[in-house]
Every structure is written in structure tokens, then in C-alpha cells.
């Protein structure tokens, strides 16, 4: 077996190993993208932020500047504060389970199974379907009727989306079902980068399956872990479509997340200014968490 | 602040429109799929295109009347799009917020929701319809639903009632001869249904708006029958949810649950499941608004199996009141360039013939009636009440859009046993004061 | 040998359990309402395709398919062109400014879309692009650029610099070096960029609802959900609508799956 990992054929010139690095590409390479990005994302976001300091209802001309009042309201808003807790719980559950399941699936289909190609396709396919459609489907799967859906299959009597102490986890389950395949392919990418020789060497040294995973595979999976944790954390914190379609934040406030709160404030309660303040807090929150995560995980990648 | 923002946009807008023209031209040459915005009709004259955005319930009557209108007035073309309420609310609020409203759009009567007549008219976005003849005949009791400061801003074809949609065959099988007329009779009926092995009342409380209907069905009897001016007192701060018949209504709601009169897991059951339970005879009845009768009929093997009766919220048949609210309607954008054509279409909807057609399609009681008006036989038992023992749906008089969603949420919490009536009413009072 | 066999059995069992929701979806879409309430879990007996016929005509999916395809394809071309060029610059430039620019792009991944929703709508409306394909294409190109740039930059950073340098020694300009030498090397990550963006754009529901609603240029999800909203109480019909709405993207995925998953694997190594 020849190692194929970094084995793409290099052009002959590369062999000369000149200590000469071409100048960076000119700025106009980035300019068109920057213009479109600034127009569609940055400019609207920055002008949107202005509303966070107003009492605008979302329609009409009446608007006055209220300073930081919206942020003070947020601190005293029981419902919004509760939603932060839900958002965190949901994110932790999704990150842990989606990546745990994704890793196990990746290890499974990485082995030399006859059905591996088919299995990969099966596990990845929910990723391509719209989250709202998946939520519609799962709403049926989760229906409390003991003869239908998941209850019918497992012989249970659980009120998956109607019981406030279960609903949040049911949503997490639905998200994990859809995206475990996504984590799986990223881990697979990492696994394919682990040279087989290392395993063989470790086997000769008498290492067991677990030990080989722990000391050979796991450290080399670090970059895949970083990407997976980051993407699933951001996805979890910003999760909206699935919650909105499955429970709309209910029963009561049991599955209300920051995203559904800011949505309702803007479009149901007619408090656009306040909603923007919540959106701003969410954005800072996501940015802070992902920065800390990347910083910590990149360090692990280096030391691992 | 406001003016500053708006002024800045004017000049920027002109610039961008120019840029947009370029981009669109480029796109048009690139894939030549850019839509034609003005259509031409047979006579070769340019047609005015009226854009309408509505909720799914409006599709049947609107499509029918728009088609008829276009036949009589070929220079107008109406392009309508429909979506479920939440989605319409989101897209319309975005368009209204950005100052780009469709010519005609769905409006909810009265106040109490972000898409309600009062909230949108206050922002100056609805055209005044007061000059149209039909507005002169709006029954006095319905005026608050149509008017703000004496001006009419919304068209609606009539009213619907909240009551029990029941399956006649199931009632017969359980040995129930006549619909109940007092609360104790109502409980007795539920008991009989339960003994007959069906769920007496199907409740699809996972769908948020369904949660409110039982309270709405009871509150007219427990609150308004005793104090018809309750709304005004509450607005003036002299009355509250916590110290009123609302408490009795909530207690009655939970009594139904305690006695096991609902299906299992109402919080996990959707409106759709509720509908099919009653239609297929797995449940005896559902407390619902008459506007969804067509949904129940569609799901039933024989539509005639279904009928309605008023929910008696009092032990004296004479003090039973019912909720009768104006159905969701539409308004014209005040700022659109086709405002006059849009108003002309609404004027057409205001004709008695159109009102009759619209009302018939959604089983509503027509706003005004003539010899050719029809009233769905299922709601006939409500007619004796509509004169002086009916009140509009409660949210139509609430001062802001927050009370109603709080009501939904606290009912779900109560059904889940995660809250008490005291806490629930306190939350509603807090939302009312916001 | 026996262990591999055992693992194979376990994985197949997991896959079967994993497919249960899909089974429910398809089997319900092949049942009439009577069958659904009598035997929700059983196989459809006999299967009926009536739901598909009604769903297809009621949801008017034909024109929507064309709209979705045009918007998705043009946006993807724009994203790949703009994204790969920008990423090449960001991955190779050494200055602090270049790094700052990279971070600026990444910011787009964390921003909640609700933040700029109304100003963006005003902008597209000022451009006169509401209700047009061009407006949607502009929107998707902008909104998906951060993720596209992120994927490309990571991959290019891991690519030895020598390729382009070598070409340049041979006298090629930056532009030629990129298009002739570097871009072909990006094929794996381009596959990833393609599928992830295609999935997002094809499935997006909210923006086309707001921007295209009532224009006669609705995309597939908008048509499907308008349909679903109207027939909510008929699960068989609704599920047939969902299957029809998901089918095009699933078919494309299945046709390209070998390439997609491989590209994904090698693409994300960077």
C-alpha cells in the first residue's frame, strides 16, 4: 500500500524548491466579492443595527431614538432570558449528540464494508432536504397517537412535542437525524487522512482497537473536530426553521429560543426595534462562542 | 431621526434604482426570464395589475370573486398569492416595513395582532374606504372591527361564531338527543360520550391559535353576560383578567381536562389531527370557529354528519352568550400607485352579491343580508344569539399584539400542568399593560 | 472477517432505523385518508398515486421548478467565481489588512439573518429587483459568500504555493496562473461548495416568500408550502407534496453522490 494522502502529483517545477514565493495576488481578485458581500450583508446589517436603538414598530413612520432602553428591557424580560437557557441547552445537546453519532457513523462506514457506499448515501441524504420539510415530517413522526409514528414503532406513549419537559429534546433529535450525516462526512474526511501505516505499526506494537483510536486516530482527527464543533455550534445557536415549524416555541415557552423570540418580537408583537436588539445580542453571542471555540481547538490541534 | 433615515433613502434610492436597472437589464439579456410586469389584454390596452397577498383561508372566495371581477372589468388583472398565516404575517410585515406594500392584502379586524386593522391603519398604511356605499350598512356592533376614529379601513364579508363542531352520528350512538343548553347539560353530554368510548372533545392545542377557542367560547357567558362594558373598563384600567369571569372560564377549561373530556396529549395534537378526530368519529366534538367548518367537512366521509351548537358557558340558558367575530378581511394599501383601482375592487366586494358569495364559501354569516343570502344550516342555532347576546372575539379589542400569544402560551402551560390559573392570568394582565 | 461482518449487520440495522421517517413519508403519501387512520404504520395496501396527481396540479410545480433551477444555477456560478477569486487573494496575502478582510467575511457566518432583513428588502426594492430572478441571485450570492470564502480559503491555505509560483516563473500572469493552474486544483472543494450552496439555495423558503410571493416567479418551497398550508388536514396529500418538493434536489444528489461525498471528504481537509 502506498500512502495516497498528500499524494496528488506535483508539477515538476515544485521539485526545484526555490525559496521564492510569488507576490500575493492583486486586490482586484477580492474586490467583486467584497462589493457584493458589503451590499447584501454588511450594509443591511449595519443599517439594521440602528433600529436596535429605536422604538420602531416595524411599519410606518413613527420612530424615536430610545438609546439603550431596548437592552435594559432585555435584561428584565423573563421570556427572552428563559430563551437563552433553552438556546444553550439545545445547542449543547445538538453539538454533543450530532457529533458523537456522526463520529460513530464515520468509524462504521470507514471500515471495509460491502455496503459502505450505500450507507454513506443513506446517512447523508437528509442533509439535502429542506429543514422546514423535515420539521413537517417529524411533526407527524412525533405525534402522540400510540399507534402511529415513533410511538407506534417503539410501542411508547410519549407526547414528544406536547410535553414541555420533552419537547426541546425532541427538536434536538430531529436536528441530529438531519445533520448527523453532515458531521459524518467531515469526520470521514479526517479519517481518510490517517495513514494506514500508523495503524499497522500500532497493531504490531500490540495496541487494541480502543487504544489505536485514542492514540492514533483521535489526535489526527483534530481539524475535523474543530470544523464540526464550530459548524454545529453556530447552527445550534441560530436554529430557527426547525423550532418554528415544529413547535413555534411551545408548549408554553418550553422551546422558545433566541431566534424565535426575536422573530416574534418583530413580526408578531410589532416591536421591531426591540427585536433588533435581541438579534444583536444573539450575533455577539455567536461570535464570542465561536471565537473562543476556534482559539481553544486550534491550540489543541497544534499540541495534539 | 425618522426623517433623517427616510430622506437619506430617497437620494440613495434613485441611485440604486439606476443600478438595479442595469443589473436587471444584464440579467434579462443573460437569461431572458425577467417577468413582464404589465400584461396586455385582448383589446390591446395595458392592464392594471393588482397584487393581493392573503392567508390560505381566503383562497376560495378570493379566487372566485377576483375571476368574476376581471370578467366584468378586463383592464384589471388580479394576481393573488396565499400562504399560511405565520408566513403571510412575516412577508407582509417586511414589505410594509420597507414601504413596498402590495395593492391589496389581508387585514385582521379590530386590534390585537400585528396585522390588525388598528395597528396598520395607525401607521398610515391603509386606504380610507369610508366613501364606499357598503360601509354605511356595517352593523353597529361590528364597527370597532372595521373602523378606527370613525373611518373604515377593512372589508370583511361577515362574521363567524365559535362553538362546538360535533359529529351527529357519534352523538346519536352515545344516546344524546339534543345539543346541551346549559353548562351542566354540556358536562353530562361529555360524560355520555366518554362512556360511549370516544373522546368527548378533540383539542389540538399544539397549534397555538386553537388553544384560545375554549376560553373564547366561555368568556362571553362568564364575563360579558354579566358586564357587557368589560372591554371599556379593562381599557380604562378598572378591570383585569385576574379579577373577572376570565378566572371562571379558565377553571371550566381545566375542569374539562380534569374530568378526562379531552383527547390524550392535547399539547401534542395539532389542528389537523383534531379535525380528523371529529370528522372520522374518534371524538364527539371540537370547540372551533365556524370558518373552519369546510376543513371538517372535507375530512369527513359525509359532510352532513357535522353540525355546530353554541357552547353553553352558564347554568342558566338565558345568560349564555356567544362569541361572534368579524372574519379576516382585506384592505388596500394607502401608498400604492394603484390605490384607486384597489379601492374599486373593494367596492365591488362590498356589493351584496359579493358579500353573499364570500360568506357562503367560508360558512360565515353575511355582513348584511338580502333575500339571496344563505346561512349555513350548521350555524343556524347561533342566530338567536347574534342580535344582543354576542360579543366580538376578545383579541379584537385588546390594545396590543402581545396578549393573544401570551394567552396561547399560558393555556399550553396550564394543560401541561406547569402553571396555575393565578400565574396565567397575571401574565396576561402584564401583557395587556405593555 | 467475522468482525467486519458483524459490523456490517449493525450498520445496516442502524441505516434501516434511520430510514424510518423516510418510510413514513413515502408510505403515507401512497395511502388514502382511510388507510392512514386505520393503519398508519403498515405498508400501503393497495398503494394509490392519486395524492401525487392532485399535489402536482394543485401546487403548480412546473413553473416553480424552472424558477428554482434558474436561480440556483446562476447563483452557484456567481458564488464559485467570486468566492474562489476572493479566497485565493485572502489565502495568499500576507498583510494584516488581508487577515482583517478574512475575519470580515467570517463575520457574515455568525450574523443572524433577521438583523438586516428590512434594510436589505428596502435595498432590493430600491434596485427594482423585487419579484425578479436577478434579485434572488444577488441575495444568494451575497448571503452565501462568507461560507464559500471560508471553505475555499481553508483549502487554498493547505495547497502548496509552488503550483502558482511555478506557473508564474514560466511567465504567466496572476489571472492565468489562477484560472489555469490553481482553480483546477480546487475541484474537490468546489464540489463541496457546490452541493452545500445548492442545498441552501434550493431549500430556502423565507426569502423567496418575501421577495417573490405573488410575483408568479415562486420557487419550489414557496409553492409547496402554499399548497401544504391549504391542505394541512390531508396528510397523504401533504406528504406527496413534500416528496415532490424534495425530489429534484434528492435526485441531483443521488446522481452526483459519488462525486459529492468524495469532494466533501477531500474538500474539507484544508
From TrEMBL, chain A:
PANTHER family: ABC TRANSPORTER PERMEASE PROTEIN, INNER MEMBRANE ABC TRANSPORTER PERMEASE PROTEIN YCJO
Pfam families, per database record: BPD_transp_1 (PF00528)
UniProt record, GO biological process: transmembrane transport
Record's keyword terms, sorted: Cell membrane, Membrane, Transmembrane, Transmembrane helix, Transport
GO CC entries: plasma membrane
Organism lineage string: Bacteria, Bacillati, Actinomycetota, Actinomycetes, Streptosporangiales
Family: Belongs to the binding-protein-dependent transport system permease family.
Protein name as annotated: Sugar ABC transporter permease
Keyword check for Cell membrane: yes
Topological category with respect to the lipid bilayer: Multi-pass membrane protein
Compartment annotation: Cell membrane
Ranges that cross the membrane: 27-53, 88-109, 121-141, 166-194, 215-234, 272-297
Gene3D superfamilies with a match to the protein in the record: MetI-like
ABC transmembrane type-1 domain boundaries: 84-293
InterPro entries per UniProt: ABC_transporter_permease (IPR051393), MetI-like (IPR000515), MetI-like_sf (IPR035906)
Coiled coil: none
Main localization category: membrane
From TrEMBL, chain B:
Protein name, UniProt field: Extracellular solute-binding protein
Entry-linked InterPro entries: Bact_solute-bd_prot1, SBP, TAT_signal
Pfam families tied to this protein: SBP_bac_1
Domain of life: Bacteria
TrEMBL record, chain C:
Name of one Pfam family that matches: BPD_transp_1
Domain spans labelled ABC transmembrane type-1: 65-256
Subcellular location: Cell membrane
Membrane topology annotation: Multi-pass membrane protein
Gene Ontology annotations of biological process type: transmembrane transport
Record's keyword terms, sorted: Cell membrane, Membrane, Transmembrane, Transmembrane helix, Transport
Extent of the signal sequence: none
InterPro entries (alphabetical): MetI-like (IPR000515), MetI-like_sf (IPR035906)
GO terms for cellular component: plasma membrane
Keyword Nucleotide-binding carried by entry: no
Top-rank taxon, per record: Bacteria
TM region(s), chain numbering: 5-26, 70-90, 97-117, 137-160, 181-202, 237-256
Family note: Belongs to the binding-protein-dependent transport system permease family.
PANTHER family (UniProt xref): ABC TRANSPORTER PERMEASE PROTEIN MG189-RELATED-RELATED (PTHR43744), SN-GLYCEROL-3-PHOSPHATE TRANSPORT SYSTEM PERMEASE PROTEIN UGPE (PTHR43744:SF8)
Protein name per its UniProtKB record: Carbohydrate ABC transporter permease
Source organism (scientific name): Nonomuraea turkmeniaca
Amino acid at each position: 500500500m502506498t500512502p495516497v494522502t498528500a499524494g496528488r502529483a506535483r508539477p515538476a517545477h515544485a521539485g526545484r524548491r526555490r525559496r521564492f514565493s510569488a507576490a500575493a495576488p492583486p486586490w482586484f481578485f477580492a474586490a467583486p466579492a467584497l462589493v457584493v458581500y458589503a451590499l447584501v450583508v454588511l450594509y443591511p446589517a449595519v443599517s439594521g443595527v440602528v433600529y436596535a436603538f429605536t422604538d420602531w414598530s416595524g411599519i410606518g413612520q413613527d420612530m424615536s431614538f430610545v438609546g439603550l432602553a431596548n437592552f435594559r428591557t432585555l435584561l428584565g424580560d423573563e421570556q427572552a432570558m428563559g430563551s437563552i437557557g433553552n438556546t444553550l441547552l439545545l445547542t449543547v445537546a445538538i453539538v454533543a449528540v450530532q457529533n458523537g453519532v456522526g463520529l460513530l457513523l464515520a468509524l462504521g462506514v470507514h471500515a471495509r464494508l460491502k455496503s459502505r457506499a450505500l450507507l454513506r448515501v443513506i446517512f447523508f441524504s437528509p442533509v439535502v432536504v429542506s429543514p422546514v420539510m423535515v420539521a413537517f415530517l417529524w411533526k407527524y413522526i412525533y405525534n402522540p397517537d400510540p399507534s402511529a409514528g415513533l410511538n407506534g414503532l417503539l410501542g411508547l406513549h410519549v407526547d414528544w412535542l406536547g410535553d414541555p419537559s420533552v419537547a426541546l429534546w425532541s427538536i434536538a433529535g430531529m436536528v441530529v437525524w438531519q445533520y448527523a450525516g453532515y458531521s459524518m462526512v467531515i469526520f470521514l474526511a479526517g479519517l481518510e487522512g490517517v495513514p494506514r501505516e500508523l495503524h499497522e505499526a500500532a497493531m504490531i506494537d500490540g495496541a487494541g482497537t480502543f487504544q489505536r483510536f485514542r492514540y492514533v486516530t483521535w489526535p489526527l482527527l483534530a481539524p475535523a473536530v474543530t470544523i464540526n464543533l464550530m459548524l454545529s455550534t453556530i447552527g445550534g445557536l441560530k436554529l430557527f426553521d426547525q423550532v418554528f415549524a415544529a413547535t413555534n416555541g411551545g408548549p408554553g415557552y418550553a422551546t422558545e429560543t433566541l431566534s424565535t423570540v426575536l422573530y416574534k418580537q418583530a413580526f408578531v408583537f410589532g416591536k421591531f426595534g426591540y427585536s433588533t436588539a435581541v438579534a444583536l445580542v444573539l450575533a455577539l453571542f455567536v461570535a464570542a462562542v465561536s471565537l473562543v471555540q476556534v482559539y481553544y481547538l486550534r491550540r489543541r490541534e497544534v499540541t495534539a | 431621526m425618522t426623517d433623517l433615515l427616510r430622506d437619506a433613502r430617497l437620494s440613495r434610492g434613485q441611485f440604486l434604482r439606476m443600478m438595479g436597472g442595469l443589473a436587471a437589464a444584464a440579467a434579462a439579456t443573460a437569461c431572458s426570464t425577467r417577468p413582464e410586469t404589465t400584461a396586455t389584454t385582448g383589446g390591446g390596452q395595458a392592464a392594471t395589475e393588482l397584487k393581493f397577498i392573503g392567508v390560505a383561508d381566503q383562497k376560495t372566495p378570493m379566487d372566485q370573486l377576483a375571476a368574476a371581477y376581471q370578467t366584468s372589468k378586463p383592464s384589471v388583472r388580479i394576481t393573488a398569492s396565499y400562504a399560511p398565516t405565520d408566513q403571510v404575517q412575516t412577508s407582509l410585515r417586511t414589505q410594509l416595513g420597507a414601504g413596498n406594500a402590495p395593492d391589496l392584502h389581508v387585514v385582521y379586524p379590530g386590534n390585537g395582532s400585528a396585522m390588525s386593522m388598528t395597528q396598520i391603519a395607525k401607521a398610515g398604511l391603509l386606504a380610507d374606504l369610508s366613501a364606499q356605499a357598503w360601509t354605511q350598512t356595517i352593523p353597529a356592533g361590528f364597527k370597532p372591527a372595521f373602523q378606527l376614529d370613525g373611518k373604515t379601513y377593512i372589508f370583511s364579508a361577515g362574521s363567524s361564531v365559535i362553538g362546538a363542531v360535533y359529529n351527529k352520528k357519534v352523538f346519536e350512538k352515545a344516546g344524546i338527543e339534543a345539543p346541551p343548553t346549559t353548562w351542566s347539560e354540556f358536562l353530562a353530554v361529555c360524560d355520555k360520550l366518554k362512556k360511549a368510548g370516544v373522546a368527548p372533545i378533540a383539542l389540538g392545542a399544539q397549534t397555538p391559535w386553537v388553544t384560545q377557542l375554549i376560553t373564547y367560547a366561555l368568556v362571553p357567558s362568564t364575563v360579558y353576560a354579566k358586564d357587557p362594558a368589560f372591554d371599556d373598563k379593562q381599557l380604562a384600567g378598572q378591570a383585569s383578567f385576574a379579577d373577572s369571569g376570565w378566572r371562571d372560564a379558565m377553571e371550566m377549561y381545566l375542569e374539562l381536562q380534569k374530568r378526562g373530556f379531552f383527547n390524550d396529549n392535547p399539547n401534542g395534537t395539532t389542528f389537523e389531527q383534531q379535525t380528523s378526530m371529529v370528522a372520522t368519529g374518534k371524538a364527539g366534538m371540537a370547540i372551533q370557529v365556524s370558518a373552519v367548518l369546510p376543513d371538517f367537512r372535507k375530512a369527513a366521509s359525509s359532510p352532513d354528519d357535522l353540525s355546530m351548537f353554541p357552547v353553553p358557558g352558564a347554568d342558566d340558558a338565558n345568560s349564555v352568550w356567544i362569541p361572534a367575530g368579524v372574519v379576516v378581511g382585506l384592505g388596500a394599501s394607502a401608498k400604492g400607485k394603484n390605490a384607486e383601482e384597489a379601492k374599486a375592487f373593494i367596492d365591488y366586494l362590498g356589493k351584496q352579491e359579493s358579500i353573499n358569495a364570500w360568506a357562503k364559501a367560508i360558512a360565515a354569516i353575511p355582513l348584511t343580508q338580502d333575500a339571496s343570502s344563505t346561512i349555513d344550516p350548521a350555524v343556524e342555532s347561533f342566530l338567536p344569539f347574534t342580535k344582543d347576546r354576542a360579543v366580538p372575539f376578545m383579541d379584537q379589542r385588546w390594545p396590543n399584539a402581545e396578549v393573544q400569544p401570551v394567552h396561547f402560551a399560558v393555556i399550553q402551560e396550564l394543560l401541561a400542568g406547569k402553571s396555575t390559573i393565578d400565574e396565567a392570568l397575571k401574565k396576561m394582565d402584564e401583557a395587556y399593560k405593555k | 472477517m467475522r468482525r467486519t461482518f458483524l459490523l456490517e449487520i449493525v450498520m445496516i440495522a442502524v441505516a434501516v432505523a434511520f430510514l424510518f421517517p423516510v418510510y413514513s413519508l413515502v408510505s403515507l403519501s401512497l395511502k388514502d385518508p382511510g388507510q392512514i387512520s386505520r393503519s398508519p404504520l403498515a405498508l400501503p395496501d393497495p398503494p394509490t398515486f392519486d395524492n401525487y396527481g392532485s399535489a402536482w396540479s394543485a401546487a403548480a410545480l412546473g413553473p416553480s421548478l424552472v424558477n428554482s433551477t434558474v436561480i440556483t444555477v446562476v447563483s452557484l456560478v456567481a458564488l464559485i467565481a467570486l468566492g474562489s477569486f476572493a479566497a485565493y487573494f485572502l489565502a495568499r496575502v500576507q498583510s494584516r489588512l488581508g487577515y482583517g478582510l478574512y475575519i470580515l467575511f467570517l463575520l457574515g457566518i455568525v450574523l443572524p439573518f433577521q438583523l438586516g432583513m428590512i434594510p436589505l428588502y428596502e435595498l432590493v426594492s430600491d434596485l427594482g429587483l423585487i419579484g425578479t430572478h436577478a434579485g434572488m441571485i444577488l441575495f444568494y450570492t451575497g448571503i452565501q459568500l462568507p461560507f464559500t470564502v471560508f471553505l475555499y480559503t481553508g483549502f487554498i491555505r493547505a495547497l502548496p504555493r509552488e503550483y502558482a509560483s511555478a506557473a508564474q516563473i514560466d511567465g504567466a500572469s496572476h489571472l492565468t496562473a489562477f484560472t489555469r493552474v490553481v482553480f483546477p486544483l480546487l475541484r474537490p472543494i468546489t464540489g463541496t461548495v457546490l452541493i452545500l450552496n445548492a442545498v441552501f439555495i434550493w431549500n430556502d423558503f423565507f426569502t423567496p416568500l418575501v421577495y417573490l410571493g405573488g410575483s408568479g416567479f415562486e420557487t419550489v418551497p414557496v409553492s409547496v408550502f402554499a399548497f401544504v398550508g391549504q391542505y394541512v388536514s390531508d396528510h397523504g396529500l401533504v406528504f406527496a407534496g413534500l416528496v415532490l418538493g424534495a425530489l429534484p434536489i434528492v435526485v441531483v444528489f443521488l446522481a452526483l453522490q459519488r462525486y459529492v461525498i468524495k469532494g466533501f471528504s477531500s474538500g474539507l481537509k484544508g
